[in-house]
Each structure stands twice: as structure tokens, then as C-alpha cells.
Amino acid sequence: MPELPEVEVVRAGLAPAAIGSRLTAVSVFDERALTRHPLGAADFVARLENRGITAAERRGKFLWLVLDGAADALIAHLGMSGQMLLRAPDAVAERHERIRLHLEHPVHGELAVVFADQRTFGSLAVDAMVDDGPTRIPSQVAHIARDPLDPLFDDRAFRLALAKRSSGVKRVLLDQGVISGVGNIYADESLWAARIHPETPASALSTQAVRRLLAEIRAVLAKALAEGGTSFDAQYVNVNGQAGYFAHSLNAYGRGGEACPRCGGSIVRAAFMNRSSHFCPRCQRKR
Fold it and tell me: What is the pTM of this model?
């Protein structure tokens, strides 16, 4: 599933083409791509056509385009395999294309944003904006905590939240109500970098350990962003259809049975919440 770096790469790619443009037409080819918009395709189209786009924003794994008037936004969740692709307005249909947005930009001219989704777990929707402290976000994102790259992320509140939880620290990192955008891949990589076992109770971490973990989370996410995200197959690509290459920089995730790059021990792959954890039991000792 796309995580914070992949979604941010898509948002950053969409922003120059979308901001300042006007939605001239919207085509819905598969209503399964509107599961987050319960009023259906006709309402979705009517609320978008002839609207201007003023901003492109993100929180965790959600991204959205703010519509003129700032009362609502076009929100996207990519699910397992969703793609937002920039194309020429007359480009042939993409494989698994579900929705096409036609834009007219004062500088770039006519463009199309294609939402393609092989597994149909992703969705677009038009959603009302609500207050969230000093910022405004779509209502569907209101339950999601800020992510560690957000300038308003509260390090102290995060540390206090961990101190109240006896669950393993990796489970807490995947709790979107505590911290958003980390996901399975980057949780494994950050815990490896911080030398913390994924099953260490969150409440057992010292203040110093939490600070070290947050620093490593931010470093891992920043590196993944610089390398365009992580692609293991063709399902995640940027707006131009290009894959990210952070997979070549992974130290723990997906490397079960291989030597730990730091200590030479064997990376372990263990079952975890219907997925897997990857860690080095030698240098990530369970305290």
C-alpha cells in the first residue's frame, strides 16, 4: 500500500498542474472508485465541473485538491494500487482507468488527471473542509493524526501517547490516531535504524529512545521521498508513471534471512497483524 512518501510524491507531482487550473469536465467510468462519495457519480461530477483548484495538500496517506471557495475538496485515497496520472487530454485510456478529470491551466493548457486502480480499493470523493486547529482539512481526514513531517506535529504529545500504551511499539506506529503515514515498510526501517525491537512495549521506551525513534522516522521518510518512494511492482508510480527506487535502500523490510547490514546477524521475518515484521534480533534486542 502506498505510504506517506509515495503519496507525497504524487501530491508534489500534481501540484504544479492542478493549482490554478479549472475542472472543465469529469468522466466516471467505474463507480467503485467513489466508495468514499456516497451520493454517487452524478453528484460527484456536478460538484466538480467548472470548479477551480487552489491548493494540493496531504496528511498521512490522504491527499486532496482544495476547490475554490475553500469549503470543500477533492480527496483521494490510493488504497492498495491507486494511481493519479498526468496525461494529455486526448490520451488513450489507461489500463484500469476509473475516473478522468479534465483540467485547463492558464500556463500549461489542457491536461487530464487519470485515476487508475487495479484492485479498486482506492477512492475519490468531494468532501467538506473542517477546522483542525490552525488548519482546515477534509472531514474524512479529521480522525487521522498529523504525520511526523508535518510542521505542526507535536513531539511531546507523541511521546506521552507512547507512554500510555503497553502494546508493541510497531503496533502503535501503525495506529493512525497516534501518528499517520508511517506504514509497515517505514516502521520496520525506522525501528531498525533506531535499534528498537518492534515488540518492545511502547510505554517501556525512554524519552531518549522516543526522540531517537522520531529522528529516524523522519530521516527514513525524507530519504524515501528523495528517492521517489518504494516500488516493488508497477502498482505504485508517480504522476508520470515512473517507479520509485527506495527499495534498493531498504535495510530490514523484505530482507528476511539476509545478513543485517549493520551487525551481520540474520534479519528475521515474523508474522505481524496479517502482514510481516522484519528486524535484526541481534542489534534490535527486545528490552
Answer: 0.90
